[in-house]
C-alpha cells in the first residue's frame, strides 16, 4: 500500500468540451507531480438522479460516495451558473455527507465566461464547512475561460500557475489534522 495521498476531483460540468474539466485536469496533473495518486470523477459518466433522501443509493451514488470517502483530498470544480455552482455538482454533493467529507481536505476551483466566479466558491465553501471538511484557504478561478483555455489546456500562464498551485496545495495539506467538531456540524443533521 502506498503512502501517497489520493486526490479525487469532481467535475461539476456536463459539457463535452468543458473548461472546468480542463482546469481540473491541470490541477490533477500538478497533484500527481507533487506525489499524489489522482482520479477524475466525471459526472457525465455517472447516473445520479436528482437527490431523494428516500433513495440515497440510487444509480451510481454508491460508486461516487465510495470514491470520495476513500480519497485523502477532494478537488471540487464548477462552472459558475447564475452566481453559484452547478446543479449537477449540487446533486453529487447531496449524495455525500459527513462519512465522505468530515475532516477531508477540499480544494475549490471555478470557471466562468465572465470575470468573477468567486461567489460559486463561497457557496461551495459553506457546504463543505457544514460537512466539517477542511477547505483550503487557497482557491483557483479561471475567469473569461474562453480566452484562458484553448485546445484542452489552460494557456493563460498566470491562471495556469494558480490552478497548478491548487493541485499542489491539496496534496500538501491532504493529511492535515482537523480541528475538533464545530457547533454547526452538531446541528447540521439533515431533515
TrEMBL record:
Obligatory cofactor(s): [4Fe-4S] cluster
Domain NADPH-dependent FMN reductase-like: 6-146
GO MF, one annotated term: oxidoreductase activity
Alphabetical list of Pfam families matching this protein: FMN_red
Domain of life (superkingdom): Archaea
Cellular component annotations (GO), alphabetically ordered: cytosol
The family this protein is said to belong to: Belongs to the SsuE family. Isf subfamily.
Name of protein: NAD(P)H-dependent FMN reductase
Organism the protein comes from: Natronoarchaeum philippinense
Amino acid at each position: 500500500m502506498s503512502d501517497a495521498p489520493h486526490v479525487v476531483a469532481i467535475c461539476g460540468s456536463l459539457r463535452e468540451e468543458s473548461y472546468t474539466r480542463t482546469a481540473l485536469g491541470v490541477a490533477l496533473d500538478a497533484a500527481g507531480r507533487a506525489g499524489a495518486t489522482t482520479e477524475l470523477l466525471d459526472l457525465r459518466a455517472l447516473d445520479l438522479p436528482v437527490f431523494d433522501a428516500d433513495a440515497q443509493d440510487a444509480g451510481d451514488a454508491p460508486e461516487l460516495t465510495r470514491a470520495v470517502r476513500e480519497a485523502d483530498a477532494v478537488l471540487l470544480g464548477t462552472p459558475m451558473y447564475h452566481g453559484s455552482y452547478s446543479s449537477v455538482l449540487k446533486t453529487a454533493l447531496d449524495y455525500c455527507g459527513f462519512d465522505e467529507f468530515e475532516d477531508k481536505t477540499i480544494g475549490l476551483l471555478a470557471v466562468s465566461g465572465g470575470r468573477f466566479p468567486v461567489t460559486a466558491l463561497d457557496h461551495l465553501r459553506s457546504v463543505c464547512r457544514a460537512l466539517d471538511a477542511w477547505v483550503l484557504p487557497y482557491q483557483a478561478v479561471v475567469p473569461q475561460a474562453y480566452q484562458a483555455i484553448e485546445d484542452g489546456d489552460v494557456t493563460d500562464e498566470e491562471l495556469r500557475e494558480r490552478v497548478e498551485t491548487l493541485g499542489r496545495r491539496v496534496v500538501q495539506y491532504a493529511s492535515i489534522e482537523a480541528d475538533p467538531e464545530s457547533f454547526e456540524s452538531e446541528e447540521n443533521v439533515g431533515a
